[in-house]
Amino acid sequence: MNASESRATAHAAPPDFSVKHFSRTFARIGGLLLTVALVMAVFSIISGGLFLVPDNLLGLLRYMSTLAIIGFGLTTVLIVGEIDLSFANLYGLSAMMTAVAWLNWGWPVWAAILLSLVVALLVGLFNAFFTTVVGIPSFIATLGSSTLIFGVTLLISGAQRFAPASPPTGKTVDPGEVDFFRSLSNGQLPFGIPMQVIWMIGIAAIFWVLLNLSLFGFRLKAIGGNETAARYARLPVRRYKFYAFMIVAVVTAIAALLDFSFIGSAQPGAGQALLFPAFAAVVIGGASLSGGQGSVIGTLLGALLLAIIANGLALLAAGPFVQQMFLGVVTIGAVVLDRFSRNWGKVR
Amino acid sequence: MSAALISTLGVSISGLVKRYGDTVALDGLDLDVSAGTIHGIAGPNGAGKSTLIKILASEVQPDAGAIKVCGEKWTSDSGLHQIAVVHQEAELFPNLTVGENLLVGREGTLGRPQTGPREHEVLEEMGLTRYRDMLLGDLPLGLQQRTEIGRALVRNADVFLFDEPNSALTAEESEELFVQMREFADSGRTVLFVTHRIEELASVADTVTVIVDGRCCTTITREDISPQRIARELVFGAVQHERNAPSEIVLAGDAVRVEQWTHAQQKFQDISMHVSNGEVVAVVGVEGSGGRELVQSMVGLEHTSGQSSIEDYSQVEFVAADRSESLFSNLTVAENLYLRQDRRIRNRFGMLRFAETNRLASQARADFGVKAASLSVPVRSLSGGNQQKVAIASALAVDPSLLVVEEPTRGVDVSSKAEIYHLLHEYARGGGAVLLYCTENSEAFDVADRAVVVSSGRIVGSIDVRTIPDVETLAEQITVLEAKQL
User: Fold this and answer.
1) N or C, where is chain B less crowded by C-beta within 10 Å?
2) Per-window interface: A 214-273 vs B, CB < 8 A
3) ipTM
4) Residue A232 in contact with residue B301, Cβ under 8 Å?
5) Is residue B246 part of a domain?
6) Could you tell me how many helices (H) and strands (E) chain B has, helices first?
7) Nearest CA in chain B to A232
8) DSSP A133-148
């Protein structure tokens, strides 16, 4: 590869820059931005400006980061035409795996983190194996593995909560390691911007390049759009599905570890409350449940919207019950939106 | 029309029109079918047969036209006269017993329905009595189909429409079915029989109507029916193209050769054939003949035993008949065009080279005459003919050692057809090898250098198409070869 070639690559326009495609994508993104602005305005007014207090906004950004980081992986799985329901419990397992290995077994913290990532990869392999090799629909396969994962989490943790600040009786933790682990999500940043936001931006950039500029992303979209045609065109369908399931598992582990680092404690079922918000964020962001569609920017905005809604409702002291109801409505609404937008696409 | 004639008219269709968008499926179809006869219907793919069946089965509504059954106006919801459609695979409830299948939809009151005298009568008539309490899904297809017919009988259907009823049946089961059809006709019912198998049509039907371009083009009566005659009418209606002039073909070694090639599920057995570089070979055979599986097996898509000269399938490309299986509707025209060229479109870091992809797509569009407003419009926005050109172009663009295409011009307009034939021809003349699966004789005539005729899973003959003067002759020869096998 020489200089002229890479220059040509740099100057060439990315695909899909027709007016029609442009307008359709941007209609969705524009619509999302508008919704975000509207919901923010409503919450600001109802809460009497409380919503706009910097501390509140920063907390909101942190929650958004968790949703978005997992959401990028989820987007990848949806693009290839599969679904993963096991991420919520994998979130719990990932944090717990590190906590147990580090605090209970006395592993160095870096090894404990590595262990979590390896376990996540194995979970991805497991899901992919049963989906693509055995041929079970991923909905069922990952629903099953989700429960299995939760069981493992309870087993290794003894259903206990772990915190580096108060290690289990009889165990000691190197304070230097505690500091290091805390620093993963508690760096000093201007305006008190949470470190997790930086992680989110970095991971978003990687996913953006992967999905928009790489052969991988292109083929992922093709496979999800028409699996039969992909097989006939000799695309590596099965291998790409393996990649997708492993990717969502690893980013889930990263999100879980960052939250563990920030909150300072790990609980077995901590991720279960993320299942629907993360899903809703991705679908609102334009990923199609029938495969072949999804975008990083969309998922980012979807995560922002979901975070605003969760934060706003909490601020209004709506209580967890109302929040649950609202989440249900939003999730169904997102799927309905997905259905309609697909039909709009079909009518010419 | 005299009173006597009206009374014997089973079904009378006049001016039936059905459009799907810009496509006219039925273009003022007129058809009279006498009660007490078996009336065969033939027609090339896309002629409107399946639309006619769907209308009679009440699956779609016609845009215009009238249908009368036994002299009375018929609509799908009038409930006056029942039209029973018997499909190639019974559309019933495999999880219920034969008896329960007869009752579904007629339960009426609360409580578990019981088979009554009428049901027993029908079970007896169809020879199903001893299967009454067996699960339908456990029975062979022939019995499932009889159950479907029985279901129509208990509803007192007047008209029976058999839609490719025996393509999945054994020869024995087929014979039984034909006897059944004859009995229905003799008892004064109206029997319509739609099939691709010309020989069966000729031997079973009293009258045969050939549908072309959404109209009935000819009706052949008993004394004139012969497979050859039907074959001629089928291609006669088809629009004739400028045939590619028989240029000199230079054969340069085998692109593929198979010996003792046998399908894992016996769709074809013990096939020996080859395709040389420089020629277009068409495997010709009706649906269910094994021809489709044969060409798919050549690119490694079917489980087979035997020897093939191809070990590495990465050099062969396949284009499926159905565009929903060959194109990516969520991608643009350009993306569909360069999708198969993975080595050229990525750099060593696995990133797409957009300059190269754009160039490849533009080149493919120019080389293969794809008419698209822009390369970045969704592929589904193109016309059917241009979509098909994209599908074939994306495979040809990688310069495969063997190109396999199923029904290359199914559902494609006339001018695109000629262009696609030209593309395939050019590719072979340039030293490539092309293998096609054709269900239409006219297609084989237009594009192939050699036709390999497949019937009941075996090769029954090979025809040098370039020496055949016209499509009627080719159709006749193919029919003769197919008849030999039966």
Assistant:
1) N
2) 214-216, 218-219, 221-222, 224-226, 228-230, 232-235
3) 0.81
4) yes
5) no
6) 16, 19
7) B318
8) IS---HHHHHHHHHHH
Q: Looking at the whole model, is its pTM more than 0.95?
A: no
Chain B interface includes A206 (CB < 8 A): no
Residue A332 confidence (pLDDT): 82
Q: For residue A15, what pLDDT is reported?
A: 45
CATH of the domain at A128: 1.10.3470
Minimal Cα–Cα distance from B319 to chain A, Å? 7
The nearest CA of chain B is from the CA of A226 a distance in Å of: 6
The residue type found at B6 is: I
Tell whether B125 is covered by a domain.
Answer: yes
**Residues in A touching B351 (Cβ below 8 Å):** 9, 209, 213-215
Return the CATH number at B149.
Answer: 3.40.50.300
Same domain, B264 and B150: no
pLDDT at B486 over 60: no
Q: What is the pLDDT of residue B5?
A: 43
Same domain, B283 and B164: no
* Cβ pair B258, B298 in contact under 8 A: yes
Edge-to-edge strands of the sheet including B207-212? B83-86, B159-163, B190-194, B38-42, B207-212, B215-221
| Residues of chain A contacting residue B325, judged by C-beta atoms under 8 Å apart | 226, 228-229, 232
Q: What is the pLDDT of residues B91-121, one digit of tens each?
A: 788 888 888 888 887 666 556 667 778 888 8
Domain carrying residue B89: 3-237
Q: How far is CA A316 from the centre of its chain?
A: 26
pLDDT in tens, B123-135: 888 888 889 888 9
Domain containing A253: what range?
34-41+53-342
